[in-house]
Amino acid sequence: MMFSNLILHILTNLKPSPQAGPSALSVYALRLGPGEEILSCLVRFVEQKKLKAPFVITCVGSVTKATLRLANATALNTNEVIHLNENCEIVSLVGTLNEEAHLHICLADKDGKTIGGHVLGNLEVFTTAEIVIGEGDHVCFTRKMDDRTGFPELVVSSRSLQI
């Protein structure tokens, strides 16, 4: 088999991997103001910048409301959802921001009691949201349905191997 045919064969038969790298890192920072919805703003930012492997590095700020799916949800029972309608501090916001963003958040109420879960949306900024976004420069994030979990799960691939 000729070398070029061998390379073509390898590239066309590559299976997506749950890992790839190492990769250089690009960093972006943005601040959202009162009334802005965090998830939709992040999705729009990623689309505008054409990011291929974006993720949240850190976020501080506060929200007036949030809609979260709790940890006991399954593919068949995704209705374990809570709607918060109170001012909360963002203690943590982490996750990937590819075409189907997968974010988890931890919020603290006025008494310091925390609650966390999978972000479904409705994260309305109270005072500020200061967000730092990273992107792996040499990798790409996509999602593919995983029959084992019933959810679209992360697929990581190397950009240099994409055709």
Automatic annotation (TrEMBL):
Location of the PPC domain: 22-157
Pfam families linked to this entry: PCC (PF03479)
Annotated gene: LOC114648465
SUPFAM superfamilies associated with the record: AF0104/ALDC/Ptd012-like
Protein's name according to its UniProt entry: Bifunctional protein GlmU-like
Organism for this UniProt entry: Erpetoichthys calabaricus
Gene3D superfamilies documented for this protein: Hypothetical protein, similar to alpha- acetolactate decarboxylase, domain 2
